[in-house]
Write a structure and sequence with these properties.
about 240 residues; Rossmann fold; 8 helices; globular
Length: about 240
């Protein structure tokens, strides 16, 4: 792809303190992810997959190296600036749904728009919920929704700001196979429809094969980077 990278890591290291001493989590990761690309990140548990996503989302600060996201150098950003970047340009879907239990589906999805000062927050939230097939569930609370429905609310919340970058960390991990497939179909469809860049952390190689690219992470390093048949067929 010739588009400018949405994410660029240059020799990124991430170290964490522990009772046993410093733990090297990311060890010199260098990569570019292009606009509109759907990338799977795979590897064994503890390899650094989630940490890579956290650094890309500005949720963790790299110990050293360069991190550029949506054209911004994160090394110069304080916590508030990182939060604004996420609010304006990044959507995140976790394995856990992270919905606020005392808020309805509509209120949960409207929340990031309200933080951004959008006057049309509830109208946009309703449209986002309709996009994920939850029009009849606007006034339901999380406890009144199935797991699949709760994750659809989380997907709607991630997409409601029309982010340029979407980060998804094992988004079907708490769902059964059929429900998980429906949620992933939705994620792929929305990302491609919006032209969003999607970074998907998964242990499911069949799911990874549906992406444009597969990054393999082991021991905090990128050990494999391959284009899939999906990407090759699109050329």
């Amino acid at each position: 792809m010739t588009a400018s990278p949405i994410v660029r890591f240059t020799d990124v290291h991430l170290d964490m303190a522990s009772d046993a001493g410093t733990v090297n989590i990311l060890r010199g990761v260098t990569l570019d992810i292009a606009a509109g690309e759907i990338t799977a990140v795979v590897g064994p548990s503890g390899a650094g997959k989630s940490s890579l996503m956290m650094v890309a989302g500005g949720l963790e600060r790299a110990t050293s190296g360069g991190v550029e996201v949506v054209g911004h150098d994160l090394s110069s950003f304080d916590d508030d600036a990182r939060a604004r970047l996420r609010r304006d340009h990044i959507g995140i879907v976790f394995q856990g749904f992270h919905l606020i239990p005392t808020m309805t589906a509509l209120e949960n999805v409207a929340l990031p728009l309200e933080f951004a000062g959008r006057r049309d927050a509830f109208e946009a939230a309703q449209a986002a919920l309709e996009r994920v097939g939850l029009a009849p569930r606007l006034s339901h609370y999380p406890a009144q929704l199935s797991g699949g429905e709760q994750q659809r609310v989380a997907v709607a919340r991630a997409f409601v700001t029309r982010p340029r970058l979407l980060l998804a960390d094992e988004p079907t991990g708490n769902l059964d196979g059929a429900t998980g497939k429906q949620v992933m179909d939705l994620l792929f469809d929305l990302a491609r429809a919006d032209g969003a860049t999607l970074i998907l952390i998964t242990h499911d190689m069949a799911l990874a094969a549906r992406c444009d690219r597969i990054l393999r992470i082991a021991d905090g390093r990128v050990v494999g980077d391959e284009r899939t048949q999906v990407a090759l067929a699109a050329q």
